[in-house]
Amino acid sequence: MRPVVALFVFASVLCSQAGETPVRITARIVDADLNVKPVPKHVLRIIKADGTTAVTEVSTNFDGTAGARLAPGEYRLHSKSVLEFQKKTYRWDLAFTVGAEPVAIDLSNDNAEANAVAENVTAGRITDNLSGQFKALEATVFTVWSEFGHGTGFLIDGSGLLLTNQHVIGPSRKVSVQFDAERKIAAVVLAADAAKDVAVLWADVESIEGIKVAPLATNALEPPAVEGERVFTIGSPFSQRKIMTTGIVSRIEERAIISDININSGNSGGPLFNSVGKVIGITTFAEDRGTGPGISGIVRIEEALPLIERARQERASTAKPPSRALPVEPKQRFPVDSLKAAVAAEKFDMRPYAFTQDEFDVVLLTPLVKYHLQGADEVAAAREKDKRTKKSRAAVQGTFQPLDELRNWAEYAGEYKPVIIIRARPQLREGFWSALNRGMAANYGIQAQAKLRFRADFYRMQLLCGDKEIEPIHPAKIAHVVNVQNRFVDVTDASYEGLYTYGPDAIAPSCGTVTLKIYSEKEPDKAKVKTLDRKTVQRVWEDFAAYRRVLEGS
Q1: Which residues contact 357 (CB under 8 A, 6 or more apart)?
Q2: Distance (Å, rounded) from C-alpha 138 to C-alpha 154?
Q3: Which of 11, 6, 209 is nearest to 105 (CA)?
Q4: How large is the average pLDDT for residues 8-12?
Q5: What is the 8-class DSSP label of residue 327?
Q6: What distance lies between CA 470 and its chain's CA centroid?
Q7: How confident is the model over 406-456, as pLDDT tens digits?
Q8: How many whole angstroms separate alpha carbon 310 and alpha carbon 165?
Q9: Which residue from 261, 204, 256 is spatially nearest to 229, judged by alpha carbons?
Q10: Are the C-beta atoms of residues 229 and 248 closer than 8 Å to each other?
Q11: CA 517, CA 507: separation in Å to the nearest integer?
């Protein structure tokens, strides 16, 4: 006899409180021998029917029961995770209405999503078809780099056209796409639409083996997705690459798809795949209301089709971008012990790393400098605490370890990168007339505001090792906005600062001379030149000694 699975949901007749109807949920499963067994610890999620609000989550007790109280309205009840039973996995998802009177709802295998468990899956593991789809489709996805950050893009045809969000690119002069940890090439923007937040890139991908074209859901005879359908995206959130995130379709609008899928920084521009592995949209924004997981907005793939056609026309008159490999971040991580030693040091001399270059304040950030700046306050506080406890033999010692966090999640999430980051920040200075007016006012005992403004706007940077220019891994520009008014200062201004990332051997004594050139937007062809002194070059080189030992031992 074919096994039957049933989930019985009924509302118990209890007294309502403040307009809410009590709902009691009972989950039972029928095995192949027709034995009825309760389903314990099965998490059910209740959301508004339109998908805009997550109401609550309930978990069944050991007897298979759970309870909730809901205000009258339209809802959806669905399993948060799959239930594995007799070589199959089950998920339930249904719409129901809550009124003043109890509502009885029955779920069975006839209205459940059921999938066979793969025979080669390790016992106890729960997988479904998304696992296989991720492996098949991850080769369609690239990381997109611009001067204003990074996002995700996906290949839409074999000639090298990629889709992403326009806000990932912005007004960047340089764009590149990276397939994996070692392969990164230049790209050009063929077409962009800021209103729709879509951009089409072109890269010479012929030299990149293993890539695939993402299948687009453009069949007008069938909907790209239905409400409640399970979807997933592959993207590059934070410092990660090729990460899958899943969710469900909450609502389908004319130009967008609303979902509960989590879109983090770096996921923008990635493909949203439906349950059959076709691209139905471009992950674009996330809205966090502060009271729940929030919702995400996805531009429907149909919105990008006219722009794709325009890009194909532009490609005929555009020079093909070069296919040579661009610099990438080192795969090895910086050894943590040397970072802890730097932070714990009694004295750390910052002078070799920081200097002024005309209108810019420049800082050379090695991993040791970065983590000294982040952990110095905690270490100083820990020393003060130790002074108190060391005065008493009975005091408990060593209870506060401020550096333990340096061994936690960041090491595994990609925080410890053996790179040199050069930050060039425009200076804030008081203008001549502001200083003159303040001086005149002070003669009469009047305190006037100092009007401060940025002296320049960062445009680009060059780093030379001898006569050879070092190509940056990430040439980034960050908008810096200041808006402060008080009795002492008046600052309302915005500017760009540079944040360029270089490899660990970009500054070395073997260069002979290391030169830094900074260009401003006002004078884009006239460089502010600084030759780094030998002490600075030597200190930066020594900061990577522990990392070089790791390379020698690998």
Answers
A1: 424, 516, 518, 528, 530
A2: 9
A3: 11
A4: 39
A5: P
A6: 28
A7: 333 344 334 668 999 999 999 888 776 666 666 666 666 666 677 788 889
A8: 16
A9: 261
A10: yes
A11: 14
